[in-house]
Design goal:
Blueprint (H helix, E strand, L loop, with lengths): L1 H18 L2 H27 L4 E2 L10 H15 L9 H8 L1 H30 L4 E2 L6 H7 L5 H4 L6 H6 L2 H30 L4 H17 L2 H4 L24 H25 L5
Parallel strand pairs: 1-2
Helix pairs in contact: 1-5, 2-3, 2-5, 3-9, 3-10, 4-5, 5-9, 5-12, 9-10, 9-12
Length: 280
């Protein structure tokens, strides 16, 4: 129980410290901006045609290239410091113990990933205030986007998948997309933390940047090959092989592989927490 108490207390300090760090608010501003850019066209459509947009639009937030890129750049800003090196860390490390200190940062990654996802959902809801439909049916706006019947000025933002609408209802689509998106964010943070801790240097920054670059490369090259190597793409409900009818990764592959990467990263972190490191 003392270990759990120390871990949660230390994680709470990390979160408190983050709230007063410019990097966190820069990341939030990036998320706010890209969410507005992503959602505003749907608000305009709903207003112009006096209709509603299904809440299921939340399930497509990881299907837009610009949106996903900015989100992971924001997460890279937040997670790049791990393990923390501010002046209070020596005190925390001495008081909680190295194992608890490392585990608290694992918990920190999970909480931040959930918070960022909830911030995206909140901003989307606010930007579409008065235009959202909460029924469990897809609306005319999203169906028109799929069938390319929107005005040209709107269609560039319509990153929605016909297959997803056939397989999922709005709320099932939201559940899948947000859970997988949060898992991708956790995986991203775990990789950065494990790499920094194991190396004693900030190699997590170039590694995280490489994952973002790989995601971009996927968009402009052989998708059937690179999609298996680009984990940031697996949260996209428009890409994943929902009906097991294409060469894209299946939902089972995506979930299992993301979990395996997280588990391996945690094992590396815990192993380094026993051996010690020069990072702090």
């Amino acid at each position: 129980m003392n270990f759990i108490h120390r871990t949660f207390t230390t994680a709470g300090y990390h979160l408190f410290y983050t709230l007063f760090h410019p990097k966190f608010w820069t990341a939030v501003l990036l998320v706010l901006t890209v969410t507005y850019i992503r959602i505003q066209p749907y608000s305009e459509i709903a207003n112009d045609f006096n209709t509603k947009v299904s809440v299921g639009i939340l399930s497509f937030i990881y299907s837009d290239v610009l949106f996903v890129t900015v989100i992971y750049v924001a997460l890279l800003l937040i997670f790049s410091e791990l393990p923390f090196k501010n002046t209070q860390q020596i005190f925390l490390l001495t008081r909680s113990g190295r194992r608890s200190w490392c585990v608290s940062q694992i918990l920190y990654i999970i909480v931040v990933s959930v918070v960022i996802t909830m911030v995206i959902c909140l901003f989307t809801t606010l930007f579409l205030a008065g235009h959202l439909s909460f029924t469990d049916k897809w609306d005319k706006v999203i169906n028109s986007a799929i069938n390319h019947k929107l005005p040209e000025s709107y269609s560039a933002y319509a990153c929605v998948s016909k297959e997803a609408l056939v397989v999922f209802s709005p709320y099932k689509a939201i559940t899948w997309s947000l859970l997988c998106g949060m898992l991708c964010s956790v995986m991203f943070g775990m990789i950065i933390f494990a790499a920094n801790l194991a190396s004693g240097r900030n190699v997590g920054i170039p590694l995280g940047s490489a994952l973002i670059a790989l995601y971009w490369l996927f968009q402009y090259t052989d998708k059937y090959f690179l999609t298996w190597l680009s984990p940031l793409e697996w949260a996209s409900i428009s890409t994943i092989n929902l009906r097991h009818s294409s060469k894209m990764p299946t939902p089972e592959f995506a979930l299992i592989t993301l979990l395996v990467i997280c588990i391996i990263s945690i094992i590396i972190i815990l192993f380094r927490s026993r051996k010690g490191s020069k990072t702090v």
